[in-house]
Amino acid sequence: MRARVLVSVAVAATIAIGATGCAFFTPQDTKTIKQITDGVNVTAGKIDVRNALLISDSGDDARFVGTLVNNSDSDDITVSMELAGDTQTVEVPANSRVDLAQSSTGTDESESSVQTGEDTQGTQVVDSREVVFSDAKATPGSLVKVYFSSPGTEGVSASVPVLTSAQEEYQTLAPSPSPSSTPSATSTSPSDSGATSDGEAAVPGTQPTDSQTDSSKGDNGTN
Which CATH number characterizes residue 77's domain? Predict the structure, then answer.
């Protein structure tokens, strides 16, 4: 009888330890950091690229949107971004961040599409400019390869999603249309247009020339 009790206790203990072990070795979701933004995050040397994405309605021109964070305390870094043979560069001062989702005059951080993370990273916000890749062949809904690099560091490639400005948060981020070339105005002299200096049209053959005026003065002088 006593042996049966000991066996039962041993079996129960084994089951309890097994169940506890499964829970112990199972990954805990609370320790897994999941990205909840639309864009992608990559790191190239001292530069962190946060929430990188492309906005394109036509699939031709594509605007790069995201935040570039310079983690260096002393060095300004020029970040190069290459897409379909087109390279754009952005200067990021030391210990600063450039939010490419804002215009050069926008200073309201609440309009930014990127979480800035730790306060020690890129503390100073720097005015940005619009970064547009021409002929990017970026089909909305697809992923395109963008290569990020900076001097003295190894570059990194990332698959960046292409979205449209149809979503409310991206309505103001569509690429600006390229300025169309306008034909230059051709200046026309009064003689070419058939108009006198006072703006009246001259009848052909009736406008006096300088030679005719001089000869008439000579005749008046001899009479």
Answer: 2.60.40
List pLDDT tens digits, range 105-147.
444 443 444 444 444 455 677 777 899 999 888 999 999 999 9
What CA–CA distance (Å, rounded) separates 43 from 69? 9
The residue range of the domain holding 115 is: 40-170
Phi-psi region of 135 (alpha: psi -120 to 50; beta: other; left: phi over 0): left
pLDDT 10s digits, 27-85? 666 555 555 678 999 999 999 999 999 999 999 999 999 999 999 999 999 999 999 99
CA distance 45 to 93: 15
165: Cβ contacts below 8 Å, ≥ 6 apart? 55, 57, 171, 172, 173, 174
Tell me the CA distances in angstroms from 80 to 54, 101, 106, one per residue in order: 16, 17, 23
Put simply, whether the predicted model's pTM sits higher than 0.90 gets the answer: no
Residue 103 near residue 27, CB atoms below 8 Å: no
DSSP letter (8 states) at residue 61 = S
